[in-house]
Amino acid sequence: MSSTVAAPAKVSPARRVGHWALNHGALVGLIVLCVALFIATPAFLTVSNVINIGIQTAVVAILAFGMTFVIITAGIDLSVGSLVAFSAMTCAWMFSNAGLPGPLTLVIGLLAGLVAGAISGLGIAYAKLPAFIATLAMMSIARGLTLVISDGTPIATPESVNWLGGDIGPIPVPIIMMALAWLVCWFLLSRTVLGRSLYAIGGNPEAARLSGLPVKKTLVTVYALSGVFAALAGLVLAGRLSSAQPQAGVSYEMDAIAAVVIGGASLAGGAGKASGTFIGAVLLAVIRNGLNILNVSSFWQQVVIGCVIAVAVGFDVFRNHKKS
């Protein structure tokens, strides 16, 4: 008695290309956009403008790497924009008013972001507050404390912070900080138990708990990490400005969320990666840079960014529907 085994169906090159494009939509969009902007204005791909795009990308990308951890767990962190200002202002106040050494105040600024993020995580994990409410409250608290500390005026930052906005040879330090943040995000997500736990919690938190994962402690860690990345972004921004600004980081949380979603992460949780977030952040910076070169009004730029976010979310829904 003989049996036959069906040969695997051949996949046409067109279907392979389509499948690749479906899974790398942000990268395809970035390439198409860069080509279009180069055709529209050759000044777009000059060395100076590419470096400028890198600097513009840095703060949002660093923020977005921290947000990636949160969104993978199906959470949201609305406080990161305020933590950008709060962490930098804490550092600057400790230097100018408390007289602490610059390097120590830099560490205190990072700790300020960590503590604020951990408080949000404790509220979410143990007090059962919705992530939206807990981080919305922290957004208001951090912004209010920033204004109280500064009395609504900028404060000069120490040289240890200003260095973050400078250059090492031909390479801007913000770009180096962005690369290091990318490396840390990639390593934690792909090479550690914490990273595997985040995907499990985002996919099914109850199943993760029954499997023995410390879901509550992991959530606190996730929001603390988001706070540290927000603090680093704030210090890089303060370094570029040589001062801590009380209104810094306003609406930056929206850009961070947009970069993560555009990069392929799902707001439903369980999906996301560092490389995708980086591409999403670069795409946003390229759009703004290109529209500036083309002298498009900043008001219309907000409209365009909103449309890009809507398309990215719709693309995510379509991709998830195709997989199910």
Automatic annotation (TrEMBL):
Record's keyword terms, sorted: Cell inner membrane, Cell membrane, Membrane, Transmembrane, Transmembrane helix, Transport
InterPro entries attached to this UniProt entry: ABC_transp_permease (IPR001851)
GO molecular function, one term: transmembrane transporter activity
Pfam families tied to this protein: BPD_transp_2
Spans traversing the lipid bilayer: 21-45, 51-71, 102-124, 131-149, 169-189, 219-237, 257-287, 299-318
Top-level taxon of the source organism: Bacteria
Protein name per its UniProtKB record: ABC transporter permease
